[in-house]
Amino acid sequence: MVIVGAAIVRNGQLLAQQRAWPADHAGQWELPGGRVEDGESDEAALARECLEELDVAVTVAGRVGEDVPLPKGKVLRIYAASLVSAGEEPRAVEHEDVRWISAQELDDLDWLPADRVLLPALHTLLASP
Ligand SMILES: Nc1nc2c([nH]c(=O)n2[C@H]2C[C@H](O)[C@@H](COP(=O)(O)OP(=O)(O)OP(=O)(O)O)O2)c(=O)[nH]1
Please, which domain of life does this record's source organism belong to (predicted)? Predict the structure, then answer.
């Protein structure tokens, strides 16, 4: 099963969201996203999840890093993305918090373990023009 995540970048900053649940992951940070449903493309799943979780429309671009294995045979797959309307402010619909993160702050966040594996690729993404 594929879990897709969106690396949404605006003005050199990455959008991260803080989990409100389950208890053992509450407070930890992740990228917006979720499970790809049957018959759904990765891109469509990302667009749907960003609308549900952040109430924003996104444009999905290329892959970021490699698939990261998750427990129970799942994989985490990240795509670069951008807001359709750059001025629109994402809001935490079902999360504790949502925040724009600079490259300097990236390593200091308490990321979910799989996301930590992707930090080098996320640094590369933020460094690219
Ligand atoms: N969305 C997201 N999930 C992540 C990331 N890193 C990571 O390990 N995960 C894990 C946490 C969860 O076990 C799983 C995604 O679950 P989810 O609860 O966000 O997805 P979902 O809404 O589609 O799941 P569900 O309610 O259908 O069970 O992937 C990440 O960066 N973003």
Answer: Bacteria
